[in-house]
């Protein structure tokens, strides 16, 4: 029987959420998918609600804060923004529908809504600052950030969701609208 870490459980929780939805985030589904006993689950989490709370925090950390940290490794506002857009379109295939599933969960589950609201605020504020720094104009930066952020969220909400390649093309078009040079990397 494999020895799992807490991150293994949380990553599997994200896979379940993306593939099957929040109602399948049960101990039975998780243990069956991971091929372990409930004892392994309780080694890492005191109860199901503890798992859900940890999963929400993990999603915020991995889906937002880690991406911002990676983006900050770049030096110029342009390179940071390009890196941010590339990172948000580089999700593994099993997580491609995670944004959709999480937003759906947030509609019906107040703790998920609270985290989604915080994630959206963090993502938008960071993107707004990058755009303002890049354009040298706060008002224009805010509008550009709103376009980029809305394009990302909207691209995940249409059915079928836009491919990441199509989203990168949309980002490149937004860059062109603002007269910002693009690179050849990933269409941006």
Give the total of beta strands: 0
The secondary-structure element order is: HHHHHHHHH
Distance between the termini: 45 Å
Our Rg estimate from Cα atoms comes to: 18 Å
How much is the average pLDDT? 92
- Could you list the spans in which at least 5 consecutive residues all have pLDDT below 50? none
Alpha-beta content class: mainly alpha
Largest sheet: none
What's the quaternary structure here? Answer: single chain
Counting DSSP H or I runs of 4 or more residues, the number of helices is: 9
Shape: elongated
Range of strand content: under 5%
What is the percent of helical residues? over 70%
Report on the architecture of this protein.
By secondary structure, the chain is an all-alpha fold. It has a domain at 55-182. The chain has 9 helices and no strands. The chain has helices at 6-20, 27-34, 38-44, 48-71, 77-87, 98-108, 110-135, 138-157, 164-177. The termini are far apart.
Question: Mind sketching the topology for me?
Answer:
Blueprint: H1 6-20, H2 27-34, H3 38-44, H4 48-71, H5 77-87, H6 98-108, H7 110-135, H8 138-157, H9 164-177
Main features:
single chain, mainly alpha, 9 helices, elongated
Summarize the structure.
With 188 residues, this protein is an all-alpha fold.
